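If you are new to this repository, start here. Below is one unmodified record pulled from the training split, so you can see the exact layout before writing a loader.
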Amino acid sequence: MKYKDLKKKPWFKFMSNKYVLVLTVFIIWMLFLDSNSWLVHRELNQEIDKIEANKLYYENEIQKDKRILKELDDSIEIERFARETYFMKRSNEDIYIIEYEDSLNTDKDE
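And here is the target side for that same chain:
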């Protein structure tokens, strides 16, 4: 195809317009090559989404801990918590920890 034939095509006239060329270069620059490009913004937005999810998780954990602390205002609840979590006992008691076979960590390669 000759250059003269190509010049007659309507899409070539449109694409060879200097404004279209400058706009195309500008769009490519802004989307991919600039330090504040669309790709960088997309990565930053994904990071923001992850951080917001972490924030929501930790806010829920804080609310859960506040409920537990509110329950532990009572001395009976403090004693129950200490017994269940830290296996504490009174001086005249014995504690037996029962572990079932399915709850033990055993090697199956034996």
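Two things worth knowing about this chain: The CA atoms of residues 49 and 55 lie 10 Å apart. Residues 1-34 form one domain.
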